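Deliverable D2.4 — example input (structure tokens):
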């Protein structure tokens, strides 16, 4: 891996770890508190929080998005382990590379869509219904998360030699 890509990958690793911690210790507990308060307000006082559903939807999207890059770096994505473990090592490596390529393609298309939607939302001044948040900010966050996942996915294609705790899609320290 080139030096610049290695530095970029290390920065992306740190950002992905921070994003995961943010999702785990901020967004998920905030969702739990808001949903609980909404239930109490709805059933005890017959007056639910008008903004509760919108905020929990945004927090759910944020928590999943923030945790994705970290999960993919740590090889905890969903796959059919029962079938995967029966495969020959060479086939596993091919499947792992194909998985990385598909992930890269998906997040490139998602980033393009987020960029186009961000531009459009900015041009027309689109806002959310209850909180009146500018929608382009939400798309900008999604675009940044896509960029993070793209960087971590590209870095997974290249072996790293300086850290032994890196986990690749093959479960080893590097892709072969």
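Example output (designed residues):
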């Amino acid at each position: 891996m080139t030096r610049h890509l290695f530095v970029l990958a290390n920065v992306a690793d740190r950002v992905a770890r921070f994003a995961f911690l943010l999702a785990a210790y901020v967004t998920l507990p905030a969702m739990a508190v808001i949903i609980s308060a909404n239930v109490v307000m709805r059933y005890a006082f017959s007056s639910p929080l008008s903004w509760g559903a919108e905020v929990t939807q945004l927090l759910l999207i944020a928590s999943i998005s923030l945790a994705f890059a970290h999960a993919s770096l740590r090889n905890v994505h969903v796959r059919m382990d029962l079938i995967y473990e029966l495969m020959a090592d060479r086939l596993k490596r091919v499947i792992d590379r194909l998985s990385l390529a598909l992930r890269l393609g998906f997040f490139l298309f998602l980033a393009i869509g987020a960029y186009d939607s961000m531009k459009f939302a900015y041009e027309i001044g689109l806002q959310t219904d209850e909180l009146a948040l500018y929608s382009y900010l939400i798309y900008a966050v999604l675009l940044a998360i896509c960029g993070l996942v793209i960087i971590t996915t590209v870095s997974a294609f290249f072996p790293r030699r300086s850290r032994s705790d890196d986990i690749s899609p093959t479960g080893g320290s590097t892709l072969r």
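The CA atoms of residues 111 and 146 lie 6 Å apart.
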